[in-house]
Design goal:
about 70 residues; alpha+beta; three-stranded mixed β-sheet; 2 helices; 3 strands; globular
Length: about 70
């Protein structure tokens, strides 16, 4: 499914500027639900790297584009 990632200003500023420009960003946080709407309230951000041991792999995931315009 789809959810919104809500990143408080303090969390964004604490994140390394290189990580902010990463193609894939891992978000650790809390899930909030209001009816059908789901938000992920970010508590920590980090760039995902294939060399991260123990982290989930993106290999084999379908590649798709979303156009929200």
């Amino acid at each position: 499914g789809i959810m919104n990632a809500v990143v408080p200003k303090a969390v964004w500023q604490h994140c390394d500027s290189r990580d902010r420009r990463a193609s894939v960003l891992m978000i650790k946080g809390r899930i909030q639900r209001r009816g059908e709407v789901v938000h992920l309230l970010a508590e920590q951000l980090a760039a995902w790297d294939e060399s991260d041991a123990g982290e989930p792999s993106l290999v084999g995931l379908p590649r798709m584009s979303r156009d929200f315009c």
